[in-house]
Amino acid sequence: MRLRDLGIEIGTLATGPNNAITDVSGVRVGMTTLVEGAAGPLVVGQGPVRTGVTVVLPSDRPWEAPVFAGFHRLNGNGEVTGTHWIRESGLLTSAIAITNTHAVGVVRDALVTWEASVRNPGESFFALPVVAETYDGTLNDINGGHVKAEHVLAAVEAATSGAVAEGNVGGGTGMTAHGFKGGTGTSSRVVGDWTVGVLVQANYGQRRRFRVDGVPVGEYLDVDRVPLPANVDQGAGSIIVVVATDAPLLAHQCDRLAARVTLAIGRLGGLGEHQSGDLFLAFSTGNRGRIPSEQPGTRDVTTAAFDLTVLPNHAMSPLFEGVVDATEEAVLNALLGAQTMSGIDGVTSHALTPDLLLEAIEAARHNAARVRAHEKDPS
Fold it and tell me: Domain 3-37+45-293+309-376 adopts which CATH fold?
């Protein structure tokens, strides 16, 4: 189930054919999902396991076809490796992976191993892979080391264009958002000649502040109707957002694109709270193949000049709209795509079911109409 299956559309822009980040040509997504053991007492190293890894490939061999990229931090209680070099160079030269907080090192090392395996044997190279995280220790044996290098390599091998799985999949497997079962979600928008695609790993937000297309549904979805997971700290958690576009943007323009994600988080009811890692990466494929890779022997400044196509800054506002709308819809797709899941010590994260969401929207709108009528005629 996706948001548009319920007849709800965020904004007025059309989506791409898959309504996914993969609508940006050349971008592929792969996942490995790890669900092992029945819900029950936590035994570190044995489970229950509710985790995974998601990989986003900007191209088949991103170190050979760098793309301009940017980064934005709403609240920094989290991690995205490789971002210092993105800020310094303005370029993304690796795959992007998303996993759980305590698997970042394993996933990063696996991406280096993958790159070494497909480069020329014995080639010397420099890699700073981009790996992001959110915390799934509410449901998952997060200290058990269950994400292995082979799971990362499997996600890379499985990466495809086309439809993207949502909900309890990949790195989003064990996540909770706005007090409901969260996870992985995606959406896209067509903006004139360009496409903007978004992929989220949603694990953030308070229930009471939750909004859908401006409707305060969180006020009607109280804990008596849908219990909160027993050990969730409301307001803690994180959200990772990856934005891709084929619009020809420079690095500073990708920064601007990533910053607009914050508006979607606010519209949904997020605050970027103290215990939340709200971290957003944007990249542009618009000049992919034109930017020289930094391979040994290619650093002679006398031959380093290259031509670019660039969208002017004053033409970016429609892209901002696309990012905000697609991010909001991607989070809602993650929630609707998720299924109720129980994990460690029997803790349960309940799904936001379509009928419950529609009921809450109707109740919120009815109440708003009643308030307006009372304002017109207090008697």
Answer: L-amino peptidase D-ALA esterase/amidase (3.60.70)
Catalytic residue among 278, 284, 325, 349: 278
Predicted local distance difference test score (pLDDT) of residue 106: 98
- From 59, 94, 238, 349, the catalytic residue: 238
Q: For the whole model, what pTM was predicted?
A: 0.95
Candidates 187, 188, 276, 284; catalytic one: 276
CA atoms of 138 and 232, how far apart (whole Å) = 7
Instruction: Please determine, for residue 378, whether its predicted confidence score (pLDDT) is greater than 80.
Output: no
276 noted as active-site residue = yes
Which residues are CB-contacts of 164 (< 8 A; sequence separation ≥ 6)? 18, 20, 21, 22, 29, 184, 186, 199
What is the per-residue pLDDT across 162-207, written as a single tens digit (0 to 9) for each? 999 999 999 999 999 999 999 999 999 999 999 999 999 999 999 9
**Whether 238 is catalytic:** yes
Domain ranges in the chain are 3-37+45-293+309-376
